[in-house]
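// run 5 | inverse folding | seed 20
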């Protein structure tokens, strides 16, 4: 499956790439949540190809907004993760595809066609960036850790979420090396997998934002939980906390203050 999957994702990458360098008309799904015809075109292409080639899988995808369909043998797609970056010409945007068999992680692919970076992981086989093995960082001090986060679209309307974002930054910033907000959850997870960030957390993500990245991070030796420190459910949990494993407890303690 993996060769065919990557071939299709790379073809879809051409659509994203063409859009990235074109003038774009932007529509709003919500105050802060953007969509372009390229998000729709990449998703349509992937859905068509996957349903031809991988008939035993159903498809859950961002622009179809169908996270309520049965999750079992499923391919979960974010056609353009980091749409705001895509619209503004910031080359930190990717196609994210997570494949699950019997609800269990199987294959994760995150592909940034602008930088030509393809992250791939298959369960029990490790994680790779453009074919080269990647591993999480070995840093074990939160104070020396470079962290990443994201700001939920809900912070535009929901003052409780906004306050929570600010409170967590207040707690974390004095206790880490620094904190980044790059704007693509799938790539953020891959950057933890690659050892660039020691940890990452965010609230209100959807399954398509994380379905591939969590497989890639686990296979690179990382740890992912919800904010309570127990098993992360991408369909239900408000927070994802993802680290190299070494700083996980320290980060959880600070986030939960
Ligand atoms: C976005 C992310 C971003 C996150 C947003 C959103 P989209 O995905 O990956 O980092 O902060 O909440 O989910 O909408 O560009 O596919």
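// decoded
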């Amino acid at each position: 499956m993996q060769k065919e999957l990557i071939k299709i994702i790379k073809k879809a990458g051409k659509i994203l790439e063409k859009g990235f360098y074109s003038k774009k008309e932007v529509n709003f799904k919500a105050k802060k949540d953007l969509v372009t015809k390229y998000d729709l075109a990449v998703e349509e292409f992937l859905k068509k190809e996957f349903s031809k080639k991988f008939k035993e899988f159903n498809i859950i995808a961002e622009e179809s907004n169908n996270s309520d369909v049965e999750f079992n043998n499923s391919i979960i797609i974010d056609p353009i993760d980091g749409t705001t970056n895509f619209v503004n010409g910031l080359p930190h945007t990717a196609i994210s595809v997570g494949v699950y068999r019997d609800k269990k992680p199987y294959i994760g692919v995150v592909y940034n066609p602008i930088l030509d970076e393809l992250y791939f992981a298959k369960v029990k086989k490790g994680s790779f960036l453009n074919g080269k093995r990647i591993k999480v960082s070995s840093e074990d001090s939160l104070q020396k850790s470079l962290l990443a986060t994201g700001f939920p679209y809900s912070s535009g309307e929901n003052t409780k979420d906004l306050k929570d974002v600010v409170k967590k930054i207040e707690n974390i910033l004095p206790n880490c090396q620094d904190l980044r907000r790059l704007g693509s959850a799938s790539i953020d997870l891959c950057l933890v997998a690659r050892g660039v960030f020691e940890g990452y957390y965010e609230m209100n993500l959807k399954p398509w934002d994380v379905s591939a990245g969590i497989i890639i991070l686990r296979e690179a030796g990382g740890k992912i939980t919800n904010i309570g420190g127990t098993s992360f459910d991408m369909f239900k949990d408000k927070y994802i906390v993802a680290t190299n494993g070494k700083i996980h407890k320290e980060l959880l303690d600070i986030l939960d203050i």
